[in-house]
Amino acid sequence: MRFYIDERGGCIAVRDKTKDCDSQGLHSDMDGVIAMWTGVQSYDKDGMVYWKIHDWQKEKAKALCDRLLGL
């Protein structure tokens, strides 16, 4: 599929495979990124920091990807 969801490092994006660039990171200004949402910083029970992507962000990404794919 041409469009796909890329979720990593506390963010989620809809990307276009035909415009992908070779990068380990994920940034909103990268070629091939159609839309991107950044999660929020949270803490686990031991006080360690982690990034949480909300369900609404995942739903938005899926809905956009589905629209682009014509689903």
Topology overview:
Layout: E1 3-8, E2 11-16, E3 33-38, E4 40-43, E5 49-52, H1 55-69
Antiparallel strand pairs: 1-2, 2-3, 4-5
Describe it:
It is a single chain. The protein has 71 residues and is of the alpha+beta class. The protein has one domain. The chain has one helix spanning 55-69, and strands at 3-8, 11-16, 33-38, 40-43, 49-52. The strands form two sheets. A three-stranded antiparallel β-sheet has the order 1-2-3, covered by helices on one side. Strands 4-5 form a two-stranded antiparallel ribbon. The N and C termini lie close together (12 Å). The relative contact order is 0.25.
Question: Globular, elongated, flat, extended or rod-shaped: what is the shape?
Answer: flat
The counted number of beta strands is 5
Strand-residue proportion: 35-45%
Low-confidence stretches: none
Q: What's the tally of helices?
A: 1
Portion in helices: 10-25%
What number of structural domains do the residues give?
1
Mean pLDDT: 92
Along the chain, the helix and strand elements come as EEEEEH
Separation, N- and C-terminal Cα atoms: 12 Å
Largest sheet: 3 strands, antiparallel
Give descriptors for this structure.
alpha+beta, 21% helix, 71 residues, two-stranded antiparallel sheet, 1 helix, three-stranded antiparallel β-sheet, flat
Give the structure's gist in a few sentences.
This protein has 1 helix and 5 strands, in the order E-E-E-E-E-H.
